[in-house]
Amino acid sequence: MDCMIKSPFWDRYLKLVREQLIPYQWGILTDRIPCETESHAVRNFQIAAGVKEGEFSGFVFQDSDLYKWIEAVGDILQYGRDEDLEQKADEIIGYIVSAQQEDGYLNTYYQLKEPDRKWTNLLECHELYCAGHLIEAAVAYHKGTGKDGLLKAACRLADCVDRTFGPEEGKLHGYPGHQEIELALLKLYDVTGEERYLNLSSYFLEARGNNRFFEEEFERRGRISHWTRGQVDEPNREYNQYPYAYYNQFHIPVRQQKKAVGHAVRAVYMYAAMARMAGCCRDEKLLDTCRELWKNITGTQMYITGSIGSTPSGEAFTRAYDLPNDTNYSETCASVGLIRFAMEMLLNEADSSYADVIEKALYNTVLSGLSLDGRHFFYVNPLEAVPEVCEANPERHHVKTVRQAWYACACCPPNIARTIADLQSLIYSVDGERFYVHQYIGSEREVTLPSGTFRLIQESELPWKGRSVFRFESENPVSGELALRIPQWCVRYSLTMNQHSVTDFSVERGYLVVKREWKDGDVLEWVLEMEPSFCQADQRIFYDAGKAALIRGPLVYCLEEADNGPYLHECRVDVQGKPELYWEETLGGYYGITVPGVRYSGRRQECLYEKAFVEKQAVKLKAVPYFLWNNRGEGEMITWIDIM
Amino acid sequence: MDCMIKSPFWDRYLKLVREQLIPYQWGILTDRIPCETESHAVRNFQIAAGVKEGEFSGFVFQDSDLYKWIEAVGDILQYGRDEDLEQKADEIIGYIVSAQQEDGYLNTYYQLKEPDRKWTNLLECHELYCAGHLIEAAVAYHKGTGKDGLLKAACRLADCVDRTFGPEEGKLHGYPGHQEIELALLKLYDVTGEERYLNLSSYFLEARGNNRFFEEEFERRGRISHWTRGQVDEPNREYNQYPYAYYNQFHIPVRQQKKAVGHAVRAVYMYAAMARMAGCCRDEKLLDTCRELWKNITGTQMYITGSIGSTPSGEAFTRAYDLPNDTNYSETCASVGLIRFAMEMLLNEADSSYADVIEKALYNTVLSGLSLDGRHFFYVNPLEAVPEVCEANPERHHVKTVRQAWYACACCPPNIARTIADLQSLIYSVDGERFYVHQYIGSEREVTLPSGTFRLIQESELPWKGRSVFRFESENPVSGELALRIPQWCVRYSLTMNQHSVTDFSVERGYLVVKREWKDGDVLEWVLEMEPSFCQADQRIFYDAGKAALIRGPLVYCLEEADNGPYLHECRVDVQGKPELYWEETLGGYYGITVPGVRYSGRRQECLYEKAFVEKQAVKLKAVPYFLWNNRGEGEMITWIDIM
Lengths: 644, 644
Ligand SMILES: [Zn+2]
Ligand SMILES: [Zn+2]
Hints:
homodimer; Glycosyltransferase; Maltose phosphorylase, domain 3; 3 domains; 10-stranded antiparallel sheet; 7-stranded antiparallel sheet; 19 helices; binds zinc ion
């Protein structure tokens, strides 16, 4: 393992993933933990493997839940093996391998329910999506354990897919309705060096939107929808307002796409693959497309928390500046995908804006998706929520104000798990003789540059304090550059080397670059000023007009009912007032912030509408990190606060 | 005709209905005016009558569009006959009568498209709804013209329905999926004195929710939905979050219903019939149910504009205090139905709260539904709207920010027409020796009390000024009581009789009652103070927290982009500041109001979120009557304004 996390902040989450989330998910997936909707995921494989009797149950993409769990297991094992956990995983992998057909095909839904209808409904039925997740799981499990049983199965499945799909005559000219396999195949190519996987991935990307496959497939199966089980008018069942092809991003060829549209998770999974492909093939034009899409998302369609997807209708992007705070979707998975897209871009070109978004999405949306007990999850991450409103109003009903124990469509929990578990992959990168530090997360790693190898120990006080220390250990001096990201939120920073101020540095694309011959015992101290401050949204975001959000460092803050009482929308914040920090020991310890404001209290009235009798009080508003919301019981929460 | 409208304010609308709306609708219904979706309503009848070739086209309830047009024609003709208009109506009535079957059955959809499936899908297919509208049209046309051709057809249809439905063995034990015929039959009973119609109406109300007819019917037709044309899981196709039986108010027997639920138009149409039935049969228990439902709506589920229906999902009520301003439905038809419910209650028991709501809904929502050209209509009446947002966001996309020329589902325009056309029915009532004035709308009418008859001439300056004058003309003095509603919005009023202050009066349930022997030449002057003032919503309406609405007299005011520029949500209003009136000649003349406030201007930024740099400016906000919004081009509008 080339990078260990050593961070009090993150160790808690890694421990949560290892000790709570992963075992809990295992319990769900094996139906050992009773659940409103039984998962049945492992049992489906057991039935397909012939070791259990029964019928398939669950969504058409149920297999992926299990694959994502294995991926998280593989990721977590990179920091340290665990016999019990490996045994559990190996047992399940045994079922998976046994369930696989001779020809490499593997999908329990089709094998058990519709064996004659394989590859007939790529648009809706997630076969390639599940295959992608198997591949990613296999790669991660191989990385974490060195075992290659699942990896071989993944190759057999990839080979089967490769025999079935492609531009050649006699093959299906299709591509997935839910993108995912594109990135997976690139990872498989990395591990195996097999160029067919690279080419297959490239085929899936290039064919998309370049033919009328989904329409033809739709006609071939008699216009039957998997979801309604009856004939429908259009291939996609529900997607308000935009042409249905936008939903799965096949409205135009991938290279021509400039705006992020449709289902947000599918979109960013695909963009991540495109970014990796661009790097892999040094394809500058494809990289340009990725840059455009990146700019479109982060410049016009992203929340301050790094979440995306403005509507539950299609779990989708809408349009530039359409970022409602109370009816949004902001799926946890979408931020996971956005982080992957960002990381692929960052590996292509070090620009701090990519790492800024990773930090934002990670600390706010991904962590917000997980409760502090590791067993409850948000799927939707609203920027404001009132329990009574979410309960009563259909347009806000998808917003849950309590993290749920599980979801029938359980995409988010394992996505949180694998993102946290593979945290190490987001922190550093090497480019030539330059070593990049993208994230300030305590960790140790071996760094190999052209001129030698050293060990870097990062100690960081983020997200609570702005100080990070870098210690170098090496037998011989290593000359090279260290590039430290200057976060977008930081207005003042200081750097000392062995206690002397560093003045000889350059700044490139948001990174402070120090060139030097690094010696054993060198200590860099990097201090980022981290004053709480108010943010304002671009005026074109109508929903945030006249409002401000409070941030400190990478953390977005919010007001919760637990601190401020109900009816939070009565509050106004004084953006000229001085925010004050306080340390709070509960919830694992956090800095809260108080800010002055006023409250215009309403009252319960005889009539719904009465002559205004407004009581104005000065108040001290208490804000907590957004990612911690809803860990103290159900209650209101707002992020964007009206300015007084 | 017993009551003529003589009001500069309302004459404009009556003229608009007579000269624009009715001819325009005639053009649409006869397909003479090209329309995105052709109406085909008249042609359906011509085909059914055998005078044209072709196929049925339109919604299953297309017939009702035509019936509602005839009803509006009948209503408008009460103020003065019109040969051309009558000729048009008579021609159409000719087709209707010819289309009717021997047995009285009449519904062009079923006759032309599914002749063997009559009465097999009451839940979805609106046969009884259309029948109800035919009856209402016939009654109105008879009242307006004295002609009884359509009335006879209506009786034949009602007889056919009566032979088909009822508690007796061998009859169908069903009731309508869309209530409407219940009230219509009571009107038909009024005109004809035929008790079978009263009993049939009573049957429809009492059977509702008392058996499992809709479920049985659903099974009998093989679970086929009219809307999806395929099998479905539940009788109703789409109705988020609440049990489907709530949608059509058959979840429990009608008499047990205490909360308004489901599709708002269906609900209030039914409540109106219940209220009339209660009066008709002196059914105190049923009246109690109506009072409960009234209290529930007006006390917990009604907007300040007198609109109802908080969600597009099912065009429905949601729950107490759930009154979003930007995603609501507030269908114009629902306010029309609410007015009818209120008026039936008012005739049962004079209480000013009923008349207050009529005034509120009429001046705000009904009039807001109609453009000043009489040819454009709102179906949804938001309390705030931003064109860009409604365009971009699926949860707000049902909110149109421009009145539409027509709707495929054209329920609202003719409902506006008939409400305005039958305005006279809302103004007065007589109870024993007491004569009630519910609305201050210039008009003349003959009043007959037990002790004699007089002519009352009301001159009113509402809604622009608070003064109304009542002149009495009579040959002999008439003793009796005059009851003047004291509007809820009025805090001070004065009454003079022949220029002397009246001190001898009582106040009963919101009415000021003067008992006297009324003489020819008596002049009462009634002045209602009408200062602009701010309203505040009950605290439990979360959406209005920290906000105020500006009203004056019966009118709700709003801010429009036309007066205040874009980004209205940046504004804060000073509720301690003094609102000032200004008279504006455009749009037919209106009082606008200016109020002091501030604006926290945003700006277009490099990044979506930047350090707050808020510019605070003092501003004078300009508010206009809500009903006039969107008559000066498309733009933002808000009703509830943040308090500063
Ligand atoms: Zn998810
Ligand atoms: Zn309508």
